[in-house]
Write a structure and sequence with these properties.
29% helix; alpha/beta; 17 helices; Alkaline Phosphatase, subunit A; 10-stranded mixed beta sheet; globular; 2 domains; binds zinc ion; Immunoglobulin-like
């Protein structure tokens, strides 16, 4: 009796406090079990959260039932509301923060019950990304990432983006790929309003992960069997081209091969709005494109123009220079090396003189014999950023490239244990991709005037190397791409720039796979090692070091996506959405994440 009296007053107080804190949930009368819903937490929108009630204690016997309910906030889907541990994805939050409150009710073997609450504070992500940097390794599936990592470090996953917190696998199919499968399976062809994503990429046949040097997808046959086009006839390995996949990334829309931001079927009014246009129109952000291949080539074209065919180079370059007029263009296609294949004589002459619009908006820096391209590019940027110079505040046009149409790459040496690169003679008249990226970031920061920017950086000749099955070129091109990411990383982390991981979204991916590179079983190319012989492709050829299962052509093998910074965790909302019971995203989802991260309407 005396015991009860001694405890009654504090207990009443405790109950009163508990009732004030969480009405309807908390009740700690004696002889009841102790419910423990876990520590309060603060997370980002789109994050996976685990609620752990397993530390609850029974007063009479073990805890036998758990029951989680949500008391406050946007309703979420709990994975296992009757388990000790349950998970959910935090909802999108329009602005600021919102608090989700959950109640855990437990009972023990003696029939006693109790409850506890846990608060989850969700920070908004949408609209937080002022700076978006999208890096595209053209024709780069994971095997090529492994190849460079092994060459540089002797390990598989040590490139500059491999430590990013968000990494996932991405399907890249376009409408022609879909229609080949649809024809083969007797299914209806693709329409925007009625399609089955699994027909475009089937994880049961191709796997929910991708070849990483060790794990092989369940079926080579799925990726390597040529199929007839819709309606029969011409057979090919189903796979997207760069224009259709660039359109998916830039506009979030599936289209057909060759279309640059243009709807399938080439209707007259079929131009699609690309993300840079929207960033500019809605947020006054600056816009830049950087590539190692001609600036009017398919991938950069998808971030600066529209065309019914990717091969309309003159039309594309005219749109870029006269209408889109990005704040930064750096690429190959210089007429002294490529002729006037990628830029018209008038436009080249106009940019060179720079005295009438639209040319006068730009400062041109170009390849010159005997001049180091990186030095020339940096000097041009210093000019643009110098308030005392008449060209101060202009846009930057960097026109480089060599005989092959692309900026030459450094050559890797076959030196076991000592990886190294040498530049072929004259190649340093081109800037490196790292130098191009840094130049673009500096100019865009100034041109964005605090409102941010969208930058696309393409390792374009990775794809060209893989079409040629040139392993050494591929390593050189991949190394350039790795250096580009290092330049991005250094710029975001530099306290002298306004970019931080809180206001910058960095995404690295590829537009499609190419060549179906495989490392032969039993061989690991170590640090500094290049394969001695590139054999005839054959899965049975085990005496080799590497082989190409799809010599010189694209495949539908999924590619990787790596993301870091503002909005990176939004990818979790899309994992498995189109490809159930996998963690796959679609290339159109990358567009959706960028839109939401920037806060586009
Ligand atoms: Zn491509």
């Amino acid at each position: 009796m005396r015991v009860k009296i001694r405890y009654r007053i504090p207990l009443v107080l405790a109950l009163a406090v508990a009732a004030l804190l969480a009405p309807g949930c908390m009740d700690n009368r004696l002889n009841r079990p102790v419910a423990r819903a876990g520590e309060d937490m603060s997370v980002e929108a789109g994050e996976a959260v685990t609620l752990d009630g397993s530390r609850s204690l029974g007063r009479r016997g073990r805890i036998v039932t758990w029951h989680w309910t949500q008391l406050e906030g946007t309703p979420v889907q709990l994975s296992d509301p009757s388990g000790p541990v349950t998970t959910f994805i935090t909802p999108e939050t329009a602005s600021g923060v919102q608090v989700l409150v959950f109640c855990l009710a437990v009972t023990d073997e003696g029939g006693g019950s109790n409850t506890d609450t846990v608060r989850v504070t969700v920070r908004a992500l949408a609209g937080q990304a002022k700076y978006v940097i999208l890096l595209i390794g053209d024709g780069m599936q994971m095997a090529y990432e492994v190849a460079l990592s092994r060459y540089l470090y002797g390990t598989d996953q040590d490139l500059s983006w491999h430590s990013f917190p968000l990494r996932t696998v991405c399907a890249t199919w376009h409408i022609d790929t879909y229609d080949r499968y649809a024809w083969a399976y007797g299914a209806p062809r693709y329409t925007d309003s009625g399609f089955n994503p699994v027909l475009g990429y089937d994880p049961h046949l191709g796997g929910g992960w991708t070849y990483d040097g060790w794990w092989n997808p369940p079926s080579d046959e799925y990726f390597l069997t040529p199929l007839p086009a819709w309606g029969g006839g011409w057979e090919a390995i189903p796979a997207t081209d760069s224009a259709a996949s660039g359109t998916a990334l830039a506009c979030g829309r599936k289209t057909e091969a060759g279309n640059v931001n243009w709807a399938a079927g080439d209707p007259a009014n079929g131009a699609l709005t690309f993300i840079g246009e929207e960033c500019r129109g809605q947020k006054s952000m600056a816009l830049g494109v950087v590539t190692t291949v001609p600036f009017a080539h398919a991938t950069p074209a998808c971030f600066a123009s529209h065309a019914t065919t990717r091969y309309a180079y003159e039309e594309i370059s005219t749109e870029i220079i006269h209408r889109t007029r990005p704040d930064v263009v750096i690429g190959a296609g210089h007429p002294d090396w490529s002729g006037f294949a990628y830029i018209s004589e008038d436009d080249y002459a106009g940019l060179k003189s720079g005295n009438v619009p639209p040319y006068s908006e730009y400062l041109l820096v170009e390849r010159e014999v005997g001049m180091d391209g990186g030095v020339a590019l940096e000097a041009a940027v210093n000019t643009l950023l110098n308030p005392a110079h008449p060209a101060h505040g202009r846009k930057l046009f960097g026109l480089f490239g060599g005989w092959g149409g692309y900026m030459e790459h450094p050559e890797p040496e076959d030196a076991p244990g000592m990886p190294g690169f040498t530049w072929p003679e004259g190649a340093e008249e081109n800037p490196s991709l790292g130098e191009c990226t840094r130049a673009a970031l500096r100019v865009l920061t100034q041109r964005g005037k605090g409102r941010g920017f969208f930058l696309m950086v393409e390792g374009g000749d990775i794809d060209w190397a893989n079409h040629a099955m040139d392993y050494s070129w591929m390593i050189g091109a991949m190394h350039q791409f790795d250096e580009a990411m290092k330049a991005v990383h250094a710029f975001v982390e530099d306290p002298a720039t306004p970019l931080t991981w809180e206001n910058t979204l960095v995404i690295l991916t590829s537009d499609h796979s190419n060549g179906y590179l495989r490392f032969c079983p039993g061989t690991v190319l170590g640090r500094g090692r290049l394969p001695a012989v590139i054999p005839e492709p054959s899965p049975e050829n085990h005496s080799c070091e590497i082989w190409y299962g799809a010599p010189g052509v694209h495949t539908n093998e999924p590619v990787m996506v790596y993301a870091r910074g503002a909005g990176a965790s939004l990818f979790r909302d899309y994992q498995g959405r189109m490809y159930p019971s996998t963690r796959l995203v679609d290339n159109t989802d990358i567009h959706a994440v960028m839109r939401r991260a920037v806060g586009l309407r």
